[in-house]
Amino acid sequence: MSDLARSYTNRLSHVPMHRNNLPITSLLSYINVHYQTITLEKLAEHFHYSSRSISDFILKETGRTFRETLQNYRLVHACQYLSKTDISLNDLPELVGYSQRSTFERAFKEYFHCTPAQYRKNHQSYG
């Protein structure tokens, strides 16, 4: 039985994706929930497709690469933390999936045209 399941899973990873088989909303919801630690490989494994198929599908359906999509989710979550909590700016990058603060701050500034500290100052809704 386990050989049959393994064989089926292997075949699935080589089947081209179609909109009817896997809605983009399922992928995006999964990325949104797991944005802190998700990788393209983990996403592909979860949905039983190859990394290349998942990557191509995301680009085709959203106009963004997996990396751009993931960065968007991470930065949107960062904005929520900045505006609704007092979490330290030192702790925030790791919390939203960045291993280095400088990488996080560079991405944030490029995307929002302000630093995380400036964003917090202008959008604070706690306290």
UniProtKB/TrEMBL annotation:
This is Helix-turn-helix transcriptional regulator. Keywords: DNA-binding, Transcription, Transcription regulation. The keyword DNA damage does not apply. InterPro entries: Homeodomain-like_sf (IPR009057), HTH_AraC (IPR018060), Tscrpt_reg_AraC-type_HTH (IPR020449). It comes from the Bacteria. The keyword Transcription applies. Gene3D superfamilies: Homeodomain-like (1.10.10.60). Residues 25-122 form the HTH araC/xylS-type domain.
